[in-house]
Amino acid sequence: MRAPYRIGCDVGGTFTDVVCIGADGETLLAKAATTPDDQSRGVLDGLGVLAGMLGLPLPDLLAATERLVHGTTVATNALLERRTARIGLLTTEGHRDVIEMREGLKPERYDLRLPPPAPLVPRRLRLPLRERLRADGAVAVALDPASLEAAIAALRAEQVQGVAICLLHAWRDPSHEQAAGAAIAAALPGTYVTLSSDVLPQIKEFERFSTTVVNAAVGPIVAGYLGRLETRLAEAGLRAPLFVILSHGGVAPVAEAARLAAGTALSGPAGGVAAGLALARAGLGADLVTFDVGGTSTDVALISGGEAALGRGRMVGGERIALESLDIVTLGAGGGSLAHVGAGGMMRVGPRSAGAVPGPACYGAGGTEPAVTDANLVLGYLDPARFLGGRRVLDLAAAEAAVARLGATLGLGMLACAAGIHALANVAMADGIRVATVRRGVDPRGFCLLAFGGAAGLHASAVARDLGMRRVAVPLLAAGLSAWGMLQTDLRYEVARSLVGAAGLPEEPALRALFAELEASARARMAEWMDGEPAIRRSADLRYGEQVFEVGVPLDGVDWPAPGLPAALAEAFHARHEALFTYALRGEEVVLVTARVAAIGRLPSLPAPAQVAGEPAAPVATRRAFVAGALRDLPVFAFTELAPGQQVPGPAIVESDTTTVLLLPGDVAHLDARGWLEVAVEEG
Amino acid sequence: MPNATPDPVTLAVLENRFRAVVEEMGEALLRTATSQILNSSRDFSIALCDARARLVAQADHIPVHVGAMPFAAQAVLDAFPGQMRPGDTFLLNDPWHGGSHLPDLTIVLPVFDGPRRDSDPRPAAPDHRDGNVDPDLVFLCVVRAHQSDIGGATHGGYNPSATEIWQEGIRIPPIRLGEGDTLREDLVAMLALNTRIARDFRGDLMAMWGAARLGAKRLQALLASHGAATLAAATDAILDLAEAHARRIIGGWEDGTWQGVALLDDDGHGAEDIAIRATVTKRGDSLTVDLTDSDPQTLGFVNSSWPNTVSAVRMALAYLLDPEVAKNDGAFRPLTVLAREGTVVRAAPGAAVTLCTSHCSNEIVEAVVKALAAACPDRAMGGWGRRFRIAIQGEDPRRPGRRFVWHLFHARPGGGGHAQGDGWSGVGEWHSAGGLKFGSVEMAEARFPLFFRRHEFLPGSAGDGQFRGGLGGELELVVETSGPARANTAGDGARHGAAGMLGGQDGAPHRYTLIPRQGTPRDLRTKETGVQLAPGDVIHVRSGGGGGWGDPARREPAARAADAAEGVV
C-alpha cells in the first residue's frame, strides 16, 4: 500500500474498526477492542494494529496520513446510559416545562405503570427569564436583567457544566438569547453555552428546546472527548485534520462537532449509509436498502435514486433531536438477540440481547440463553474455529445446550428450535424493513439489499426473499463498511430558517433574500473549512394551508435564476405531495414554514482498488448445515479467493475472516470486481 | 374442520405478521389523512378481526376504540349474512349498529380465501355450518377514525345541547359503501353533503379505505403463502395463548366481590353526581363486571352506547394486566360485562351519546379499577384525568375575512400514581393514556389570534399518596380576536377529580375560569354552548392532576424533598 493514507475509524459497541485506503486504492481493515471508558484509547489501539499490518511505526503511518475521519458513539452512549452533563436551562417565564411535557405524548399505550423519563434538566434548574417575544418577533416583554442575574446565581451555585438557552419565538429574533448567552459566558467562563436560535433556528418549541437541551447535555462530553482524541493523535504524529461524521452523513471539523454535539448522535451508523451511497455511485445501483446487522441491533436505511433520505424526527435515548439526520431505522434484532418463551407463551426473539458480555452462549462467557448467533452456529452456518478470523473460538456445545433447553420447553428438537430462532430473526428484520420502506411510500421489491456488519450475510438472502427483493450485495469489507464509508463522504454544513406568520408563500424578493442569506452563511462557514467552491443544495418545508405537518421538498430541480420562484416552489411541493400521498391540492394555499440550505464541500474522491484477475476458486471446505428443512453438506468458498465474475450457486457458504454469507438453494452469487458479492435471489 | 395447531415457529411468524399488517395500515392512514384530528392528534384505530368478528390483532392507537371494534365487524356480518363479496366495502357509525358514537366512522373490508372473482360475483352462498358466514370469508379489516365533523346541530361533533341522537349528526347503519373495488359515489356524495367540511370528509374516507385495502392486500399474500386453514388454526392458537396469559395473571389475584363507584359531575341538563357503579366478582381466573346498578340514562350526551361500555371495561382490564398481554379476543374472554338497558352505561336507542368515548368511559374505567384495587393492589393505579375541551371560533385580525376554529388540547391533566412510582404529568385521560398530542405554542400563536401567557405544569394539582399522581397543567390564554368570538365546552371533571387509590388522595378537579377584560371572572361549566368572548379576555385553565396511590404518610421523605425542590407541590 502506498502513502498517503486516508483512514476511517468507526467505534462500535464491541470493536473499533479502522479502514485505511492507500494512494494505490488498496484497502486494509484493522480491528481493536472498543474501550468504552475512553473511546480514544481504542482508536489509538486500532491505528496501532493498522501500523503493524503495514509494517510501519505508528508515527510514520500518521505522518503519512492525509485525512482521518472518525465516527463516534460518545453522544449516543451518554444519552442511552443517561450519563449526560449537569446542565441548566434558561427559558421564557411561564413556559419552563416544555421539555418534560413532550407535547402530551407517552410511549407504550397500555403500560400505565411505565416510569416517566427523568428530564435532562430537572425542574429546579429550568430557570425562568422574564422576557417574551410575540409570534411576529415583536417584544412583548423586554429581557429583565434581574431575572437573568438570579438565574446566573442559581447556575453558579449548582456548578453546571452546560447551559441551554431556549426562549419562545427566538428563531425569529435571537437577541434575547444572545444577550443571556453573553452574560453567562462572562459570568461562568468555561461553561458550555448553547442557544436554541443557533442550534435549530426554526419554529416549534418542543423540537427546538429538546434539541438544544440535548446539545448542552452531551456537548461538554463530546467536546472533551474530541479534544482528548485530537491531542492523543497529535502526540502520536498526526498532522492532517481530524473530521467527524455527523448524523446527516456529511463530515465536519472537530470544532463544529463540538459546537453541534447533538448532531453526532448518529455518527456511528451514518458511515454505513455513506458507504451505501458510495457503492450506489460505484455501480451497485441507485436503489438500495442498507442492512447493517450488529450484535444488539440492526440499522436499516433507504437509498432511493442514489440519495439517502434525511429526516428530523429522530429520538435517541428517548430524547428528541430535530436536527437534519439520516433516516436510519434501528431494529431490536441482531446476532446477540435472545430467544425465549414470552410471557404469553409465544416463542420470541429479542428485543433483549446478550450484549458484548456475556454475549451469546457460544462465547463461553457465562451466557445460558440462546442468542441468534447460537442458533446460526447450531445450524452449521458458522465455523466455530474461524469466527472473526479465528480470534474467537466458539463453544458449540454451549450453544447446543442453550438451544436444546429452549426447544424442550416448546416441544421442539434442537435443530428445529435453532431453525425457528433463525427464522424469527429473519421475520423481525424483514418486517422492520417493510415498515421502514412502506412507511416512506417505497416498495422494497425493486431495491438491492446491501448487507454488512458482522452477521448480515447469514440473514440477507432469506430476508430479501421474504420481501420479494431479488438482489443482495455483500461487500468484501462488510465487517468494516461503516469505517470505509466515512472516507467516501463530503463536508456538509446545514442552515435553516423558519418564516411563519404571513399566509402562504413570501413575495419573490423576500423569498430570494431568505435563501440568499442562508446561502451566504453556509458558504462563509464552508470557507473556514476548505478552499474551493461548495455545492449548494436548497430545500423547503411546505404544507397546505390547514395542514399541520410540513413536507420537506428538495428544490434541486427548481430553475433558481428564472423568474416566478414562488410558483416554482409551489409546484415542486404539489408534485412531492402527489408522489408521497397520491394527490395534490393545486387550488389550495401553499405555506412555507422553513427554508433550508446545505453547503457541501467535495473531498477528493479516492482511487478504487485494482481489479484482480484470477482462476475460479474451488471450495476450501465442506460444512454440514441445516438449510431448507434438511441437513446438507454445503461447499464453503473463501470470499477473497473468488475470481471476478465467478458464479457460486446456492446452497453454499462464502466466508472471509470477518463475514459469512449463506446462499440458499436457488441463489446464484458472483463476485463483482468492484468489491462485492452479488447474489441473485430466487423468487420466493 | 379442526386444524392442527401450527408449529411454534409458524405461529410466532404469523402473530408477528398480523401485528405488522395492522401497524402498516395505521402508518398508511396517518400519512394520508387530511384532517388535523387524524394526522396530528392520531384519533383513529385499526383492528383485524376474523370471520367470526373476533379481534385478532390491533395496533396501539386509542384504547377506547379497541374493545369496541369487534362490534362493528359483527354488525356488518349481521346486516349482510352470507352476502359479502370480494371487493365490497362496508361503512357504519351508528351506536346501535356497531358504532360507539357518531363522529367515529368505521370501514369494514372483508378478505376472502381463493382467487378474486371481480367479474364473476359469487351467488350469496349460505354457509352450511351456521347459515351466516361465507365459508370463504377469512378476515375483516376494520378501520375506525374520528371525523372532524359529522353533521348535526353544532360544528365538530360535540353538542352539549343534544337530548337525542338525531341532534348529534348523521346516523349510518352498516351500508355497502362500495363493490367491485370501487366506492359508490352516490353514497359518498350523500354522506359528504351531510358534513360541514366535505373536503376533509372525502379525504379522510379515502385514507381509511386505502388503509383497509392495504391490509387486505397483505392478508391475501399471507393466505397465498400459508393457506386459509393454517391461518385459521394460527388465529385460534394466538387467541388461546392470550386467553391463557390473561387467565394466569387474573388467577393470581384475590377472589371476592367488590364495588367501585365513580361520579360524573353532570349531564348539562340538570342531572348531577351521575354514578357509575361497578360490582366486580373475581373467581378463579374469571371476572364479571356488573354495571347494572349504575344511574339511569340522562337527557344529555354523557350516556354510553353498549359497545363503548364494553370497550371501556376491556380497557380497564388491559391496564391492569401486563402490558405484554396481546390485546385480542382471547385476552378479554375471562371477562363478562353486565348492564341494564336504560342506564347511563347502556342507553336506550335514540339517546344522546356523543361524549361517551370520553365521559362516561373515564368513569367506567375508574369504577372498575377502584373495585379491583383490593384484588390486585400493586396493579391498580390512581385515576387519570377527565377531558374538558374548549373550541373557540372567531376571526384573526391578521387574516381578515377568514374564520377559525381552535380546539384546546393544551394543559392536559395528569396520570395516576401506582405501586411502581409517581404518575406522568400532563399526559391526559384514561381513554387516550398519552396517545393524543397537543400542538406547538409557537405555531398556535402564529396561526391563531391567541397568546399563551403561561403554559406549565400546575403545582399542587396532583393527588398525594405514597406515590403521587402526575401534575395537571395551567394555561393562561389571552383572546386576541378581531372582534367578539364564541366558545363551546364539552367535558366533565370540574367537581370530581381523578380518584385516589388505596388511600391515595384524589387529584384536583379541573377549574377553567373566564376572566373578561371588563367584568367579573366566572368559572366555565363543562357543557356550555355560545360562550361570548371579547379581545383581551383571558381563559385561565387549571386542569386536574392524577390520583395518588397508597397512604400519603408512607411517602418517602426523599420523594417529598424532591417534590419541594422541583416546585411541584
UniProtKB/TrEMBL annotation, chain A:
Residues in Acetophenone carboxylase-like C-terminal domain copies: 593-674
Every Hydantoinase/oxoprolinase N-terminal domain range: 6-184
Hydantoinase A/oxoprolinase domain sequence ranges: 208-494
A family per Pfam: Hydantoinase_A
SUPFAM superfamilies: Actin-like ATPase domain
Name the UniProt record assigns to this protein: Hydantoinase/oxoprolinase family protein
From TrEMBL, chain B:
InterPro entries cross-referenced by the UniProt entry: Hydantoinase_B (IPR003692), Oxoprolinase-like (IPR045079)
Coiled-coil residue spans: none
Segments of skewed composition (Low complexity): 559-569
Region (Disordered): 540-569
Ranges of residues in domain Hydantoinase B/oxoprolinase: 7-552
Name of the molecule in the record: Hydantoinase B/oxoprolinase family protein
